[in-house]
Amino acid sequence: MIRDVQRQDNVTTSPVISAKNMSLTFQTNDGPIHALQDVSLDIEKGDFVSFIGPSGCGKTTFLRVMADLEQPTGGEITVNGVSPEEARKARAYGYVFQAAGLYPWRTIGGNIRLPLEIMGFSRSEQAERVKRVLELVELDGFEKKFPWQLSGGMQQRASIARALAFDADILLMDEPFGALDEIVRDHLNEQLLKLWKRTEKTIAFVTHSIPEAVYLSTRIVVMSPRPGRISEVIESPLPRERPLDIRDTQEFLDVAHRVREGLRAGHAYDE
Ligand SMILES: Nc1ncnc2c1ncn2[C@@H]1O[C@H](COP(=O)(O)OP(=O)(O)OP(=O)(O)O)[C@@H](O)[C@H]1O
């Protein structure tokens, strides 16, 4: 509610992530690869922004720039008003990868605790945070299990819990559910939306799936390859409250249609 008021008067909020004419060219032995070119985008607090586009259009690179894992070669980007490097040092975000990436020799609790140990949280604070994030992803009771004792979907939820453990306001998610079957993915999408509502995080989410992008997002960024550009930003008219069967509504299908058209138009760059 407060967020909406702030957004209406448009004075108190500055974008959480702001890219201006940003480019990134990789120098390779085969010549330069323009992974991103002249990309401008503002992500506001509490937004759920999905990035969709064909393979190689720069979605992961964009996310990695936000996380200070790559440096742009042109233009500017800020995260929470500062450089990605400063934001990383201030632990502004959690990052969830496509593979859960849990250490097999550590329990679920041990995996979630690892970044907290590195950051020097006290033992009691670690325990309290592990308990809280396990509840958030509905894995209470699994703290002492090992990753191999959990299904793929549960492992991915554990990796989301790990990203949430130090309570960053921003969650960067790179195709976190891409390797899961559709039913599990539906369930995790539903849970992620609930988690987003409860925590009011700002989420940047990479996906290949049109229904997933439309179901989850407040805004959908359609990208096109060679060079990687933003071809369209679609504001979702869907309410924030979204039961899964919203996907059968005409409103949902209309947004999905717009995304598909956007992707098709972007493909013209290929020719
Ligand atoms: N470290 C790197 N060195 C050289 N080229 C790279 C590097 N990382 C990415 N690229 C290239 O940059 C382009 C964008 O890659 P990126 O992984 O961001 O695309 P993507 O849209 O996330 O693709 P996918 O959907 O397949 O994950 C691709 O052509 C890729 O090969």
Automatic annotation (TrEMBL):
The keyword Cell division does not apply. One of its GO terms (molecular function) is ATP hydrolysis activity. Transmembrane segments: none annotated. Residues 17-246 form the ABC transporter domain. SMART domains: AAA. Keywords: ATP-binding, Nucleotide-binding, Transport. The keyword Nucleotide-binding applies. InterPro entries: AAA+_ATPase, ABC_transporter-like_ATP-bd, ABC_transporter-like_CS, ABC_transporter_ATP-bind, P-loop_NTPase. PROSITE patterns: ABC_TRANSPORTER_1 (PS00211), ABC_TRANSPORTER_2 (PS50893). Belongs to the ABC transporter superfamily. PANTHER family: ALIPHATIC SULFONATES IMPORT ATP-BINDING PROTEIN SSUB (PTHR42788:SF13), TAURINE IMPORT ATP-BINDING PROTEIN-RELATED (PTHR42788). This is NitT/TauT family transport system ATP-binding protein. It comes from Salinihabitans flavidus.
